[in-house]
Design brief:
Rossmann fold, 22 strands, Protein-Tyrosine Phosphatase, Chain A, alpha/beta, about 425 residues, six-stranded parallel β-sheet, UDP-N-acetylmuramoyl-L-alanine:D-glutamate ligase
Length: about 425
Amino acid sequence: MNIAILGYGVEGESVYNYYHAKYPDATFTAYDNKLEPKNELPDGVKFVGGVTDFKGITADLAFKTPPIAPWDVEVTGKVTSVTREFLKNCPAPVIGVTGTKGKGTTSSMITSILNAAGKKTWLVGNIGVSAFDVLPQISADDIVVYELSSFQLWDADVSPHIAVVLGIEPEHLDVHKDFNDYVQAKSNIAKHQHEDDEVIYKEGNEWSEEIAQMSPGEAVPYLLNKGAFVSEGYFYYQRHKLCPTSVLQIPGQHNIENACAAIAATWSWVQDPEVIARGLHDFKGLSYRIELVRELDGVSYYNDSYSTASAATNVALSALDRPTVLIAGGYDRGYGYEEMANVIKTHQNILKVLLIGETGSKIAEHLDKGIFELSGSLDDTTKRAHDLARAGSVVLLSPGFASFDMFTNFTERGRQFTEVVNAL
């Protein structure tokens, strides 16, 4: 058997390890747009670099890694993905989670609730381990929580037992053909379900509701009393009063909503209010998602480097709701400047905006001069934010744009901010 791995990063490595164990006599070829492999190639794996598209490839089986568009692939044999093969072969029920923002947090909350209930739970996808790495260890009595991006769902033809669809907003439009293509990719989490499956969706979000309608299974909204919701400071599931929202250790209305989605997703297994409260309380939040770095001289420093869209910056500003020095800006994808400026104008709690990166000057064109300063390196900008902040205020890194102009990824950006803050 000749197996092609299209895109050789972490997931490509996982494909090799899983299928090499399954078919030790197979031959493997890794194709990538990079000239050199990111990860060390195992012995016997051929590498083809500098690929502009993935067409004209001869293989019996090809694995497309998530960022590669389906229309850029043309292989003589079967083309599939880790998502498709995992969902087809996983012996345990799978809770899949998608949405524009909040996937990682909600997936982690779900896992925390199930862990508190003593369930053997596997967290896979971007937020956890690669799905193939743990597939041989999963048993039918376990539960899998799978964080699923639009790229992972792009060509999926199988859906998880429970699909969680958080709010959907425009994103990744530099990769998807258009917003409709993005929504259609997301919809694969629900439209291949069966009648005994369930889709949890965000009531009031047009596209989340649209996706839920595609499922032949039961559709359960969250934020309404048909599912999980909040009333007078308490979480409920239908008529069941569960626990106060204050059990959450992470700020923001958006995280209360994520918790509602997590409660609804786990309700089939966990209905004990004390267990749900413990699971929600045990989750301390994810790195670089409105993460409190430290308090210094009465100023709170928050790291939201994961924010790559203005909607995420809006959420962070709303969650903190204190006088704020905001650090924003980043990689220029050709859009989003006016949207970010509108977010900044909406929040009266902003003391100053320090604009960085390629988009800084373009955001500035839509702002009044008194509210912003154009800045340079993240190191210097963080120190300037420290000078501008006052006791009782917040310094918030929430860029609203990708990091690729100045950093390898949002993790590197977030790590540098944390290091500078801790050195102040």
